[in-house]
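Please produce the structure of this protein holding iron/sulfur cluster.
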Amino acid sequence: MSQTAKNTAAFDKVKDECGVFGIYKNDDSLDVVSITHDALYSLQHRGHVSAGITVNDDQKFTTVKELGMVSEVFNEKNLQKLPNGKIAVGHVRYTLNAALDRAANQPLVIRYKEGSIAIASNGSITNFPEIRQELERGGSIFQSNSNAELMAYVIATERIHTENLEDAVLSAMKRLKGAYSTVICAPTRLIGFRDIYGFRPLCIGKINDSYIITSESCVIDTVGGELVRDVKPGEMIVIDDEGFHSYMLDQQAEKTSLCLFEYVYVARPDSVIDGVCVHSARLKAGELLYKEYPIDADMVCGVPDSGIIAAEGYARASGIPYGMGFMKNKFLGRNAGTGMDKKKRLLHTKLTALKSNVAGKRIVVIDDSIVRGQTSQHIVNLLRKAGAKEIHMLISSPPFVFPCYFGIDISDSESLIANRMSIEEIRREIGADTLGYLSVESLHKTVEGVQIDLCDGCFTKQFSAEIPTTFFVDKYANKIKHKK
Ligand code: SF4
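Below is the modeled complex.
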């Protein structure tokens, strides 16, 4: 591996991008601030760069948001600033921008001709540059590069021509291409909508007589509610004093595209997305990995955290004992050093191998994915140094061969190791005795019974949705440039 590659990618896990939450209170006993605060803790895995809450109390919007984890952003003092209003929305954000743009923190509150709205979104708008240029030509001034700001402006401009906010949102959904699961706190209602492909999850929950819209069902469980159902692709849900109302967009996708990688890595195992439990999908992935790679070994272990459930599945199917191979330091904060040194230190101090458990053994080690290869190389090194006799690395998803344009931070093609090397070359590069990836067919089998069609574009280069062809936003440089 070249030094340049090492320096540019010392910490190469896929990053997830944003979680959203909204509640409309129909029960005076509920405290929307503490519920939203608890909800954001349950969404923390979807983004740890910033967190925020906006509360609408009698049409007065109050927001607390800042860069940092939920535990860093909120404290007793600033939570007290938030009134126990009727509607609240919350957001956690992930970003790659080194500048950590505060203006992109959400929820974003905009005031326009017809009042205020607070918006929080998860996903990626693929016609972002075109729409932004169009709006800028019309005089709009943007504060950030966030999808939420763009969406808010599109909705505000549509509202000029429509009877009500609902029609403006539906019109905006027609203009906005790509992936988005969004919540809006409006003056008198809570609105949630999901793009026509359904890339990112979004579900409806109920707590007493009050309704919730959020990214994952685990959040609804956390706050003591019940899952009502998923928001359908191309559906807008409006919640008011009378309950929830559904509006379907009059344009629908030929084939929907729920992100398969949500089940592999992004979502929390205790979530159910479009009818399939994430934990069950990961267990099944491990079982199917054994079918594809029946290795003779002494112990199966998983790379914490997202490889562990698949490892249990492999152990269950093979009869090989499951054991702990690693200790993860859960207390490593984001302040562990600076720059590239920080990334290296995080990679090297995050995991240690459990010598007493792996020494002298033939180990099957399962991880969810390989992006650039450094993490896998590090994991193999750790096991070797700890005395493992054989190291068989299995991956519970197929090789990444293409970037994602729909809200998951999977690198540009050149950085993806499986785009540059054969599986045998990657095996040699990371130093494992065996390297095997779950096939695309098996990955689809892990979510049998799922209620909508799936996206597997980063594994197959096949997309049902249009990918940007003329322009794209270079997420790393934060500039708009031509796609090569
Ligand atoms: S390209 Fe991959 S990561 Fe992106 S939405 Fe499709 S399956 Fe998910």
